[in-house]
Design goal:
There is one protein chain. The protein is an alpha/beta fold. The chain has a single domain, classed as 3-Layer(aba) Sandwich (Rossmann fold), CATH 3.40.50. Helices cover 32% and strands 25% of the residues. It is built from seven helices and ten strands. The strands form two sheets. A six-stranded mixed β-sheet has the order 6-7-8-3-9-10, sandwiched between helices. Helix 3 crosses helix 4, helix 4 packs across helix 5 and helix 5 packs parallel to helix 6. The radius of gyration is 17 Å and the shape is globular. The two termini are 32 Å apart. Belongs to the ABC transporter superfamily. One of its GO terms (biological process) is cell division. GO terms for molecular function: ATP binding; ATP hydrolysis activity; transmembrane transporter activity. Part of the ABC transporter FtsEX involved in cellular division. Keywords: ATP-binding, Cell cycle, Cell division, Cell membrane, Membrane, Nucleotide-binding, Transport.
């Protein structure tokens, strides 16, 4: 599903965000990325959905060499990768339904398909009855559920989640994690960066720890393992 081979990422200011990273993530895995702030986690994920390209090395996602992808192929590859951000990034003037439907509109899906699929995913995330509400009328947890619905509406094979519970209270965070666990159970690979020790230690998925741009630990059913 995702494979990095000797990946280096150096930014113009000389910062080495990743240093010789090699890792393979299989289909249907749920992987936590942990480590201190500035360790390279966000860069790791941006490489997956091709917001960044490696300075050196090769990364493949769904069989595509991401670093050498032609511009016309990028939208196609991104359709198969859902992205969930800590700050939700919803369009404030659109309803929950419209925010989710927008992801289908940009790929010119038929209107009947858009309506049916959008309501299906809103039901999955527990917001079918709030489809017409604007983000300002929703709680933080509900906004994140809309963001997750938007990420999965295209049936992506991979979801990349950058601190999806970072702005939420503990109870709401667990609701989001149960939702992501259900999505993973349905067959979607999930790569999630987090600083939430309780979630990582309780759910016991694969843990990849990054420090100073290097993978320092890769454990099945791992633990958080940091004290900050």
């Amino acid at each position: 599903m995702i494979e990095m081979q000797d990946i280096w990422k150096t930014y113009p200011n000389g910062t080495h965000a990743l240093k010789g990273v090699s890792v393979k993530i299989d289909r249907n895995e749920f992987v936590y990325l942990v480590g201190p702030s500035g360790a390279g986690k966000s860069t790791f994920m941006k490489l997956i959905y091709r917001e960044e390209v490696p300075t050196k090395g090769q990364i493949s996602v769904n069989g595509f060499n991401i670093g050498k992808l032609k511009a016309r192929k990028i939208p196609y590859v991104r359709r198969n990768i859902g992205v969930v951000f800590q700050d939700f990034r919803l369009l404030p003037k659109l309803s929950a339904f419209e925010n989710v439907a927008f992801a289908l509109e940009v790929i010119e899906a038929p209107k009947k398909v858009i309506k049916k699929r959008t309501m299906e995913v809103l039901e999955l995330v527990g917001l079918k009855n709030k489809a017409n509400r604007d983000p300002s009328q929703l709680s933080g947890g509900e906004q994140q559920r809309v963001a997750i619905a938007r990420a999965i509406v295209n049936n992506p094979s991979v979801i990349v989640a950058d601190e999806p519970t970072g702005n939420l209270d503990p109870e709401t965070s667990w609701g989001i994690m149960q939702l992501l666990d259900e999505i993973n159970f349905r067959g979607t690979t999930i790569v999630m960066a987090t600083h939430n020790r309780d979630i990582v230690n309780t759910m016991r998925k694969r843990v990849i720890a990054i420090e100073h741009g290097n993978i320092v630990r890769d454990q099945q059913r791992g633990e958080y393992g940091y004290e900050f």
